[in-house]
Amino acid sequence: MSRYFTLHEAESLIPLVKERLEAAINAKAIVSEIDGEMHDLSTRVTMLGGIEVDPDQIARRKLERISLVRLIEESVQQIQSSGCLVKDLDKGLLDFPALLNGQEVYLCWKLGESRIEWWHSTQEGYSGRRRIIDEFGDTSPNLRPN
After folding, report:
1. What is the DSSP string of 95-145?
2. Per the CB 3.0–4.6 Å rule, which of 2, 7, 16, 146 could disulfide with 140?
């Protein structure tokens, strides 16, 4: 069974999930950088028929990558263990399950937004986001926890 959040409960989690989300996004950027370095190195070796490389430096970068991937996985797991869902790590997009008139919906938050101002049905996703104030008003009386 899913945990359902009130708007207040979901917003109170933002500082915690934001910190973990930023850590995962930053780690993912460094992993991409390392992957690019390794790809470039491989291309140069292939094109030049071999070059002198520093195996210790390559080993350090590979270990760093492993550590960063682990950090990403742990950060995502910590976020999801709070009950919210990581929908898009590249966009910094999280959904918080909630109930609206007995139906499961998602309160939708994106990194950079100061608070949760959007929701969507479980079938629509990000493109179907609607303003909370339009549906719920300022106090969100129909948004209830489990």
Report:
1. EEEEEETTEEEEEEEETT-SS--EEEETTT-GGG-EEHHHHHTTT-TTEE-
2. 7
